[in-house]
Amino acid sequence: MSTWQKNIRVVEPYVPGEQPKLQNIIKLNTNENPYPPAPAVVETAQNIDMNRLKLYPDPTASRLVEALAKFHGVKPTQIFPGVGSDDVLSIAFLTFFNSDKPVLFPDITYSFYKVWAAVYRIPYETPALDENFNIVAEDYYRENGGVVIANPNAPTAIYRNLDFIRDILDHNQDSIVIVDEAYIDFGGVSALTLLDEYENLVIVRTYSKSKSMAGIRIGYAIASETLIKAMNDVKYSINSYTMNMPSIELGAVAIENNDYYDEVAQKVIATRERTVKRLAELGFECLDSKANFVFARHKSIAGKTLFEELKREGVYVRHFDDERINDFLRITIGTDEQMERLFELLEKYR
Would you call 185 helix, strand, or coil by DSSP? Predict the structure, then answer.
């Protein structure tokens, strides 16, 4: 091996859900929202002054930051915007996890956490979920370099209430605790109400799920002014212009029209509840979901078999090869019509 090859950083990358190029498929594999963005967002997009693309965007994304701060009832200095929540989480890992102690997150959760830890050379440990796929609070009482909790968790879709989050925070007052709320709009209560009590709390949100804007890449963190300043200092040391002008404009308009998205979330929730009931009738066990997807396994058919059969029929769902969950399918909630097609295909396995 050449000397220069030895100096290459080698990591096992995150594997995103498949993005098929085929037409006329039903795509239930990446937890996108099946409904379009708010009409005001569409109108704004159609009227963006393309001549502005020759200029750098606002490095502070102030239009978006101010809209988010107003919506959440916090100061603009408590908002950190980014290119999707992946970008925000990546900066958070780089900013806050610089101890020799291991960062803690569950063994079954968003798999990008392990990748960021590997890229940034952050030690980590992954306490196991219990037999019902719940996070065990006591596993996070020990000394650590930080804690990351996805709530609702992914891919399990299980939500833990604020008492649970408060318990984690109470036992980790010397560490940064990140609560990843990518799916919070589909059930449960946000940890935002705890921000004034815990200066070490960082909440991360995304526009990719409930806001129907996965393609425009918007995410943000909410935390104390001290923590947001630290994230900005790191961000500006890497790239001052992370968010593009259309994202800033459309993100602001979206949050200013959140009533539309509340209605969309309720539609998704209603379809989710019908889906859980129908899947049970078809021989599936579903974990309790508070997300825009369900995590389900058939009583007798292997998860990979069902995954491949559905794919051949043009219905894409997500399958994970991890030992504890390889019989589960993660099924995004689509429109009622899309879900009916899924049920029709699963009838043969009843």
Answer: helix
Helix (H) or strand (E) holding 221: strand 219-222
Backbone conformation region of residue 234, classed left if phi is above 0, alpha if psi is from -120 to 50, else beta: alpha
Question: What pLDDT does residue 22 have?
Answer: 81
Is 320:293 a contact under the CB 8 Å cutoff?
no
| Complete DSSP assignment for 35-64 | SPPPHHHHHHHHT--GGGGGSPPPTT-HHH
70, two tokens: 């107003």
Dump pLDDT digits (tens) for 231-250. 999 999 999 999 999 999 99
Other residues' Cβ atoms within 10 Å of the Cβ of residue 246: 16
User: Residue 98 CB: number of other CB atoms within 10 A?
Assistant: 12
Q: In what order do the strands lie in the sheet with 293-298?
A: 284-286, 293-298, 328-332, 318-319
187 in the Ramachandran plot: left (φ > 0), alpha (ψ -120 to 50) or beta?
left
Q: If you write DSSP's letter for every residue of 298-350 in order, what string do you get?
A: ESSS-HHHHHHHHHHTTEE-EE---GGGTTEEEEE---HHHHHHHHHHHGGG-
N-term to C-term CA, the chain? 55
Q: How would you classify residue 217: left for phi > 0, otherwise alpha for psi between -120 and 50, otherwise beta?
A: left
Residues forming a β-bridge with 271? none
CA dist., res. 234 & res. 240, Å (int): 10
Q: At 23, is the pLDDT very low, low, confident or very high (cuts 50, 70, 90)?
A: confident
As a residue count, the chain comes to: 350
Q: Which of 205, 206, 201 is nearest to 223 (CA)?
A: 201
Q: How far apart are CA 102 and CA 100, in angstroms?
A: 7
Phi, psi (deg, nearest 5) at residue 86: -60, -45
